[in-house]
Structures
1.
Amino acid sequence: MNDQTRCLITAIHHNPHQIVLVTAGAGAQALADLLAVAGASRTLLEAIVPYSAASFDSFLGYTPAKHVAQDTAVCLAGCALSRARVLAPAAAVLGLSCSATITTDYPKRGEHHAHIAAWQPQNLITQDLHLTKGARSREEEERLISNLMLNCLAQAMSLPERLVQDLLPADNLTISETDFALCARQVTNRETAYFGISADGRVLTTPPAAILSGAFNPLHQGHAQLAQAASHHLGIPVAFECTAVNADKPPLPPETLLNRMAQFAGRWPIFASAAPTFVEKARLYPGIPFVVGYDTAVRILQPRFYQDNPANLLAALHEIQSLGNTFLVAGRLGEDGLFHNIYDLPIPAQFSSLFHPLPFRLDISSTALRAKT
């Protein structure tokens, strides 16, 4: 290891960020370098090398269209971020990933390329490298890609140090950054109505096909399985939505909003909006189904959320209906110990077609999980 690399890694280890690193195809030298300098335990929470296709797919939770691609590397980084949040819930964390294909012991028909990503709640940094085929040995390609990973990590940590890259004229390196923090500030300040983050880190500005709204404090298996059941029932994908401005709770600070959205990184699309009520959501997302639990459906039908005026409640339901939205209602275990479903709701007769049952039950509560924690 040269002095420049050792100096950079020392700076990384003195940074408060902690990371989960995932690398496949190349980049293992970056892990070795991090471990070779004293202080690695302050930086590295976990390192995963899913080298086989089975291990790779297991870590992602699905088989990607291409294992070596930018969107795949971003999803790896997102899953690494989710893992880091579990391992160090109170720390500043990020997920660092690399997916690459480089020189090996047989001729490759395709190009040699690497895709690197560093995902943290406030931003996403990507590096895409296309190498001049046949110009370097495997060791040289490995070193170049590992150095890029260390540079990506330094950029994510806002460190000034960088390793000099030995790029050839025919090499192509593209670096980009997506600022989620700016989007969150715009929503919480009501400068924009909503935005979304896809599983592979793209900022979404068009409405989803269906949404499941909630506080997601924390996200748990019940949310994921409810979205899956609703998607199967509707035959369309269901996205999640975290409400930055809630009807009966204080607005979420941008940092809190981003941390809650980070729970979905690499796995599911998540939207954020400043629409606290479903009539306001219907104006943002006309014509789509809202997936709700019984407890949420009860609040939708309570006049207290409409200035304690039953006429306002009926007017809101009429507007939602006229905008083409519907509610898909899943049952929920109540505080009384009984399981309640759509048939227990006081739905006005003229709005019976607005609410539809979703056969689903999984008795997990975010409130109970917070109490346990």
2.
Amino acid sequence: MGKQGKRKPPRERTYFLLSLGCAKNTVDAEGMATLLERAGFEPVSLLQHAEVVIVNTCGFIAPAREESLAALQELADAKRPGQVLLAAGCWSQRDPQAILAAVPGVDGVLGTRRWMDVVDVVQRVRQPGRTEPVLHLPDTPTVGRDERDVPRVAAQGASAYLKIADGCSRTCAFCAIPLIKGPAVSRPAERILDEAAMLAEWGVKEIVLIAQDTTTYGRDVGGQDGLADLLERMAARVPQVPWLRVMYAFPGAITPRLIEVMADLPQVLPYVDIPLQHAHPDVLRRMRRPADVDWMRRTAATLRERIPGIAIRTTFVVGFPGETDAEFAALVDFVAEMAFDRVGVFTYSHEEGTPAAALRDDVPEAVKEERRGAVMEVQQPISLAKNQALVGQTLDVLVEGQGEGLSVGRSYRDAPEIDGLVLMEEDAPVGEIVAVEVTGAMEYDVVGRVV
């Protein structure tokens, strides 16, 4: 008998999963995949080979919903007999009826608050004789309460996201996350540390801690400086992981102790992401955000003093209802004054169900886009000057790809997927951290050579 190839899984036990949106969504998708595979399903890379097709949707703002809708429609149009299509994720939680109305080919809807019930929902969707779509949308968020022994991680090469909490208890006027995810729920520290140890065993070089708001970790269970405590314990638990990165710090929630922990632990990267959203107190009050702009000035000064070379990233929203020319000018002046290392700018999206939806969306779309461009025009020379100051310095770089004599990676200044890159004019070992001398600079990326 000739040598046999690997046996293909039975068609009825195969799945295809597409995840859209942020890293937190990616982690949830990895959790669903783990549960499906424990139940005997096998992943396939080709849509036509799958019996179960799942789209993990994003529902944060209109463009994200449009992307999710396009994906669902494309997969529904490609469905063959016997194949089922399940919509999961944030948009499914927020507006399941809109999905069903727009895409009649959807067989079931699974909300993001109970994604861990994916196997049960798949079984219900595939029951013979089913005539109506299955809706599974419990209100109770369960992250931290229903762990199912499923790691909340998503590894991408030598870097991995680790979710420490889910949901949000803030009341920002423009944000739909509390409507979708529910209140903040912190995960048990021991589970998080066990997962960090697992990632270390996998050879991961960078662990990125994520949540809707990492700086409130532990407060829902009575903690005061939970993130600082967690970082100390994680650094001790996985000393072999050289990079620990913290994302999504809330304005006003960066405590003195957190700053000291970041300064004292070499593993914790000198990088902080603080989404400020605006810089005029009146706009911030309308946004229901912390309005003490001087807090950012003081905190940035302290961070830069205690952690030399720290990269500070922030994001802003332009075109919020009522934003005047003077209020916008204050934002532009603030960006020029603060000289942030990284800045993202988004135009305001009027979201049904949020407190801001009661306001008149009175800034024209063209003005929003013009203001977005104006902020980035101010930031670009700042970013270029920051990168030019690196020329001649040596940075540790996590190599993520190579080909045709070139390599690409990230330094401590660059969070995955959202910041710049380090380009190397030679082959470097993928998955390793190498020393790179910076030889050239662009607005967002730098060029160097391995030393």
3.
Amino acid sequence: MKIVFTGGGTAGHTFPIVAIVRELKKIYSGPELKLFYLGPKDKYSLTLLSGEGVMVKKILAGKLRRYFSLKNFLDILKIPIGTLQAFFWLFFLAPDVVFSKGGYGSFPAVMAARILHIPIFLHESDISPGLAAKIESKWALEIFTSFPKTRFFPKEKMICVGNPIREEILKDMGVEPKKIFNLQGNKPLILIFGGSQGARSINETILEILPELVADFEIIHQTGQRNFSRVKAEAEVMISEQSLKKYYHPFPFLNENYLKNAFFCCDLVVSRAGAGSIFEIAAVGKPSLLIPLPTSAQNHQLENAYAFSKIGAAEVIEEKNLRPHFFLEKLKYLFSRPDILQKMAEAAKNFSRPKAAKIIACYLLEYLK
């Protein structure tokens, strides 16, 4: 029983695969279950999936940007090379199925699987699928979706299950979250994160109003690895009042343990609108303020955000409207209306589908049997 996973080379593609892998191992522990991953080089797949016992094989993958870039010329060449690499690995691994999480990084492996007549399953996180997923959907036996009204795909192939999340995020903390973050606990706590890489525009907005922000709120802020040193240094300067520094807690990246503790103790989440973030926020039942990434492919983050806000689970601020003091006033307004925050939390919980990873794992095992 061999399964090859493939995906786009970002944390948003890797975390759902981690969730599915864990569920597969819980359901079936036999030695004949062998799991592999084919995808472009990135730290998320190598570190996270290797840690789950998945054998990672790196292949080239090309990203076709919808704007002029010299990188497009180089990336076009990567696609056929990556497909040949994937063909080689799939031929010798001889998997029973290939499971694609979508994204440009998945295309070479799925193309090679198509040539070799290996059954393909696809999961699409967003309402608006990207180009790779649209092409792959024509070859997939089944297409798992996160949102009920996902576009483009044929209805007879779609199974709406939600976005796979790591069940461990929902488990009991085992340790007091306040101790982990050194929280003061006497102000509303806001968790701010812009995806695995952080978000420069969100970071800039936070820094501009940071003294006013920590006067009323306590902040856990995932800045992104590349931005951490600069944000931390600027924050030290911005917060001149020594007594307020203890209310700001910047981190380059929140690992699984830190993230679940931050989710547990926060009163509101400020986030980008990737499907992974939305479904994790929903699973923990937290109100949120979403700031969609304006450059996301097919503008999928904007559509994800408004779909989530339509059911009353979140407020949306588009980046073109992200002005520091407007953002601050929006936060103050929300916390002045605890009834609104409570309704948002309830709507988020009702929207959640925390068993998505288990459903997909069961489906794959049933197919293999």
